[in-house]
Amino acid sequence: MAGFPQTPYFIGLNEPVGQEVAFTGLEVEGTIPAEIRGSFYRAVPDPAFPPKFADDHTLSGDGMVSRLSINADGSVDFAMKFVETARHKAEKALGRARFGKYRNPYTDDAEVQGVDRTVANTTPVWHAGKLLMAKEDGLPYRVDPRTLDTIGSYNFGGALKSETMTAHVRVDPVTGEMFFYGYEADGLASTKVAYCVVGADGQLKSEQWFDAPYCAMMHDFTISENYALFPIYPTTADLDRLKAGGEHWHHQPDLNSWLGVMPRYGDVSEIKWFKGPKGVFCYHMMNAWEDADGLLHFDQCLSNTNAFAFIREPSGIQMQPWEIQGGLTRWTVDPRGPAGDVAESVIGPPGDFPVIPAAKQGRPYATGFMLTMNPDRQGPPVFGGPVLAMFDMLVRLDGMDTAQPQITQALPMQPGWCYNEPLHVPSASHEGWLITFVDHQTGENTFEHFAWVLEAGAIAKGPVASIRIPTRLRPQVHGWWVSQAQLDAAE
Ligand code: V55
Ligand code: FE
């Protein structure tokens, strides 16, 4: 689109789309299984206007919410709308960007000082019949799940005191409670973290504040049946740097990581901080679970640095792509003993976007799925997303409840093809399904997009159905599957 910087974050697959669309009766190749009825919501950053600063990147883009609706009669619709945040409205009013750097309000135009600057672009969270578009730097926006119209900023009916809510909540499959946290809970670069539990009825039941060891980018966390686990990795914020107009985040390779563990219904004063290795970073965790001996296992997509070049480079970290390493990594601690070091083991491939069946959240689990790179690809990966290289292999791991999980199935892609985050859809009779949006580069600057339906027990055989999305899509951040029954029960 015109006027955008010709940097990697705004070209190719990352080129802004900026179009609200609504299509019905999409073309389907194959058959969508009859038990898959509901909506796949997705969150996508898509800047409506060229950024104020040319070195801007993916994470600042205005939130777009889209809905792939698989209807009762098997027909499929797709719609996409901007989240009408206060920021998006303020920029639309003048037809240009008014907010500056990622998470630095000191770089905003004077006239918009004090305006809520979150972009609601990271996860569509479904809980208690409400759809929330969440981003970790602010409060979520509530969106109508049918029309995708924005209802407004959401703070649990005035109950939430934290100024922020993570985009990575965890819903307990047995109690239906939603566990979440907000970091920088009382302002920029603060160490205050709010730990919150929401009842299955959507009411905020508890909010407790604690101090993190330092102000870290806390992107995700986990729960187990009895504990809440707060990982801290050394990508840190500094108020003086923000006031000087600098970046929100610098990665600090010399700082330790930490894993805070507390009984999930306990008091935050009970948090034990277990020490992890220096310099590592993880965006997403697969799960946490307790074994028969009461040990706590925390399974995460860990790297030896922050995966985002736009965070490493301002931090003065010059690493070649091949120096960036990692793998699905387990930290094991004894939550009943004294805090010590985590015990670390690598249990799976490098990659991200882990997914497990919702019923296994916080429980021992046999199977997980994640995205990684096809080691046998004949050519470069598709260029795009915040890392500038898209994943092109989906793997299934089994034996997750053992010390040595194994990759048992894989679906590698051909050059030019790549995956977005898959979601799991349960089945009444087997291990369920995965739905994932895939992108296909057909020319220098041309792409086509599909939603694939895969059988979770047989991913290697490829999609049982492929739905063509008749519009350009930017890379998705996260998605959420909401069944038709959940939609029908919602207010
Ligand atoms: C991430 C995404 C964000 C963000 C912080 O993928 C971290 C990780 C889309 O916004 O603000
Ligand atoms: Fe995320």
From TrEMBL:
- List ligand-binding residues for Fe cation: 168, 219, 284, 478
**Where are the annotated coiled coils located?**
none
Q: Which cofactor does it need?
A: Fe(2+)
One Pfam family in the UniProt entry: RPE65
Source species, domain of life = Bacteria
Q: Give me the comment on cofactor binding.
A: Binds 1 Fe(2+) ion per subunit.
* Keywords associated with the record: Dioxygenase, Iron, Metal-binding, Oxidoreductase
Which EC numbers does the record give? 1.13.11.-
Tell me the GO molecular function terms: carotenoid dioxygenase activity; metal ion binding
Q: Does the keyword rRNA-binding apply?
A: no
Task: Give the main EC class.
Answer: oxidoreductase
Q: Which InterPro entries does this UniProt record tie to the protein?
A: Carotenoid_Oase
Instruction: Tell me the Gene Ontology biological-process terms attached to this UniProt entry.
Output: carotene catabolic process
Family indicated by similarity? Belongs to the carotenoid oxygenase family.
The entry's protein name is: Dioxygenase
